[in-house]
Amino acid sequence: MFQSLPAVGAAEVPSDAFLLDVREAEEWTAGHVDGALHIPMGTLTARLDEVPKDTRVYVMCRVGGRSGQVTAYLAQQGWDAVNIDGGMLAWEAAGRPMVAEHAGTPFVA
Fold first, then answer.
1. In the 3-class helix/strand/coil scheme, how is the chain assigned residue by residue?
2. Rounded to whole angstroms, what are the CA distances from 103 to 25, 26, 30, 31, 41?
3. Could you say which of 7, 20, 61, 75 is catalytic?
4. Which of 10, 32, 81, 85 measures 20 to 30 Å from 93, CA to CA?
5. pLDDT at position 3, please?
């Protein structure tokens, strides 16, 4: 189902890209990309107006499954959406910067 979805590796995401993180709150709190928009997958349809249509949207989750579903949905609705292969695990492995909502070191939950 996701074979035709546009996708990029974490290392290929431009530093100024618009990122949509669709993980749950506890995953976000543990570690996320600074500046990303956090909308858990289950609340996306109620918050679609927060996702810009005038720019490419890079979608991420923990490993790429949820973000693949969201990317497909957004593309069907007219967004220029791209799935980030490997999600936050790949982001962390690529050494890309992360922040957390706690005092410790950010990590992927």
1. CCCCCCEEEHHHCCCCCEEEECCCHHHHHHCECCCCEECCHHHCHHHHHHCCCCCCEEEECCCCHHHHHHHHHHHHCCCCEEEEECHHHHHHHCCCCCECCCCCCCCCC
2. 16, 14, 10, 11, 26
3. 61
4. 81
5. 55
CA distances from 32 to 11, 23, 27, 60, 87 (A): 15, 10, 8, 10, 11
Specify whether 53 is catalytic: no
Per-residue pLDDT in tens (0 to 9) along the chain, 109 residues: 445 889 999 999 999 999 999 999 999 999 999 999 999 999 999 999 999 999 999 999 999 999 999 999 999 999 999 999 999 999 999 999 999 999 999 999 9
Find the distance separating the first CA and the last CA of the chain, reported in whole Å: 26
What tokens appear for 53 in the block? 């249509």
